[in-house]
Amino acid sequence: MVTSTRPTKELAELHFHLGQSVEPHILWSIAHEQGIKLPSKDYWEFFDLVTLNKEKVTWEDYHKLFHLTELIQSSPVSMERTLYEVISGAYRVSNITVLEPSFNPMFRNRGGERDLDQIILAALRGMERALAEFPKVRAGLIVLLDRRLSKEQNAVVVRKAIKYRSRGVVGIDIAGPVADGFRYDDYADLYAEARDAGIKTTVHTGEDGTAEEMDHVLDVLPLDRLNHGFRAYSNPKVMEKVRKKNLTMCLCPTSNLSVGFIKDGGHLKEVIRALYDAGVKFCVNTDNPSMLKTNLTKEIDLLRTHAILTEEEIDQTIRWAFEASFVPTEIGKNLYL
Ligand SMILES: [Zn+2]
Fold it and tell me: What does the pLDDT average to over 127-152?
């Protein structure tokens, strides 16, 4: 029997991917609702397929886990329920009142079989259903570009973001493992086009790459925020650049620890203290909460258990998260309702 307790502090979450944010039992139910043939008939075997079961995994293994959840979410019915469940669950479990779920519509259309507009509209419907039930919550969608897709495919995603801006798409982001031929420089024009149309921009950087690569990304892309970016801790010049551009980093401690980019609690402390003490703004996030068996409350608790930040400093990072949100309205007044 699941019991609910009332969480205390209001939180904002700005960096998490929908594919790995749906609780396994809901994903299981969605898959059956749609008649998807799963690799296992047993729930717990399925559970092991969509969650991380080793303390450390390789970067490649980490991305392989995404495939099954993306397949299950590849329909309008599934996307509507996904958004509804994720937004309402985040409010009930962690008192998250501002959230910006991200997903790549190109990985939800079964290789072109489904219509991208229908997928995005279904996601927006699910979001609106949750916001109608929980009026304290504000939310906006971030659509993801991917380093493995062509620039033409990514341009389609950007244009869809612009098309649905007034319905609740608030930002674009680039994610995915590095692929041959991908260059950040090639995306400066698409990022500028999105921004001109009122779409905010963020990017995955300073995660698997280096501080020097991040330095370059900061020079070439017009940005409103950063996803990860923790590699800057080793380079005062890059931290200074982030600070001067007034960018907030959306860090994901458990995600970085699980693939070994951050080695242990001691390393996490070194990273986060360096950023905080250099005046770099950041907030903590979950990245892939159901896959990593985490939630925002647990991520914030890591800062306590490893004695990284004081309570006042933790509160400051929570304020930074609210300030850095792309959702443009005040609490209780969601623009899209
Ligand atoms: Zn991410």
Answer: 95
Measure the CA–CA gap between 245 and 218, rounded to whole angstroms: 9
Distance between CA atoms of 211 and 222, rounded to whole angstroms?
A: 18
Q: CB under 8 Å to 122, separation ≥6 — which residues?
A: 75, 76, 77, 78, 79, 80
Q: Which two tokens stand for residue 151?
A: 């620039």
Distance 35 CA to ligand 1 centre (A): 29
Q: How far is the centre of ligand 1, averaged over its atoms, from the C-alpha of 231 (Å)?
A: 14
Task: Give the distance (Å) from ligand 1 centre to CA of residue 225.
Answer: 13
At 3, the pLDDT band (50, 70, 90 cuts) reads: low
pLDDT reported for residue 244: 97
Domains in the chain with CATH codes: 11-324 (3.20.20.140)
Res. 74: pLDDT tops 70: yes
Number of C-beta neighbours around residue 50 at 10 A: 22
> How much distance in Å is there from the Cα of 61 to the middle of ligand 1?
15
Reduce the secondary structure of 73-86 to three states and give it as a string: CCCHHHHHHHHHHH
pLDDT in tens, 257-292: 999 999 999 999 999 999 999 999 999 999 999 989
Whole-number Å distance between alpha carbons of 160 and 74: 17
